[in-house]
Amino acid sequence: MKKGRFLLRLGAVVALLVTFSLTGIEAMGVVKQPVASGEPRADIIMIDSLKAFGKLEEVPVAFFHDQHTDALKKQGKDCTACHETEKDRLSTKFKRLKDVDMGSVKETYHANCIGCHKEMRSAGQEAGPTDVSCRSCHSRDVKASSNWKAINMDKSLHYRHTASDSIPKGGQEANCAACHHKFDEQTKKLIPAPGEEGSCSYCHKAEVIKDVKNIRNASHIACVNCHVNVAAQKADTGPLTCQGCHSAEMQGKIKVVKDVPRLKRNQPDAVLLTVADTKALTLDSKSLMQPVAFNHKAHELANDNCRACHHESLASCAAECHTVSGDKKGGFVTLEQAMHKPGSQSSCVGCHNERKAAKDCAGCHALIPEGRTSEASCASCHAEGIKLDTVQIKAMSKEDKTAMASAMIEARMPAGTFNISDLPEKVVIADLKDRYEGAEFPHRKIVETMYAKVAKSELASAFHTSKGTFCQGCHHNSPASENPPRCASCHGKNFDATKNARPGLKAAFHQQCIGCHTAMELEKPAATACADCHKERK
Question: Fewer beta carbons within 10 Å, N or C terminal of the chain?
Answer without folding.
Answer: C
